Amino acid sequence: MSALHRVARILPPSEQVGGARIGGNLPKCLEGLRELDAYRFYASFENPNDPGKFITICVPESFDDLMQANIYPNCCVKVFQHAPSTEGVGAEHALPGYQRARIGPYEFVEEQFFEFLTCSKEPLLLQEEPYYETALLRDGFRFLMQIDEFYYPDGLIEGNVVFGFGGLYLYAHESTGEVIAGFWQYS
Predict the structure, then answer these.
(1) 80-127 per-position pLDDT tens digit
(2) For the whole model, what pTM was predicted?
């Protein structure tokens, strides 16, 4: 079993504990940021490489914007790293149709297992085209983890899913540790 291969799943309502979650309101520490005016909160979870920090993902309100800017260096999905933060009270950035649900802790698993959050050496791509990673690798980013909509539990979403039942691929810079949305793909 690889020490690098970890997964975290979306918990059923009976197991709703901890700070990692999908849906709901922005973390309190991000409330009021003007750069989020046309964005919606997607998820917030622990950085697998820096357990004292959280990663928060925000997506544009417009699916057209999301479609037009889906790959580095122009991926419009915003990624923030921050200290653990409680959920804010303002619902203006809540993603319509997404129920609030907790994300469980990371678990070490065999390399063939994937989940909603998967941290591994290599991504499991829906479309295996080298151009997705070329610029990222050239600029010093390495694959960190992926978010896979295939693993949404029943009842989490009413309406459309953000990434078209696809995945978001996060990359970390090898010297600075900056985490970015490298690209997203849909099936």
Answers:
(1) 999 999 999 999 999 999 999 999 999 999 998 999 999 999 999 999
(2) 0.95
Task: Give the CA dihedral 3, 117, 139, 84, nearest 10 degrees.
Answer: -90
Asked whether the beta carbons of 85 and 27 are under 8 A apart, the reply is yes
Residues 6+ apart with CB under 8 A from 36: 26, 30, 58, 78, 93
How far is Cα 173 from Cα 140, in angstroms, rounded to an integer?
A: 6
Q: What DSSP designation does 77 have?
A: -
Tell me which amino acid residue 73 is: P
Distances (CA, A) of 88 to 6, 92, 129, 152: 28, 10, 39, 23
DSSP H or E segment with residue 138: helix 131-138
**Tokens read off for 73:** 């260096």
- CA torsion 128-131-135-138 (nearest 10°) is 70
Phi, psi of 40 (to 5 degrees): -120, 145
pLDDT tens digit sequence for 24-74 = 999 999 999 999 999 999 999 999 999 899 999 999 999 999 999 999 999
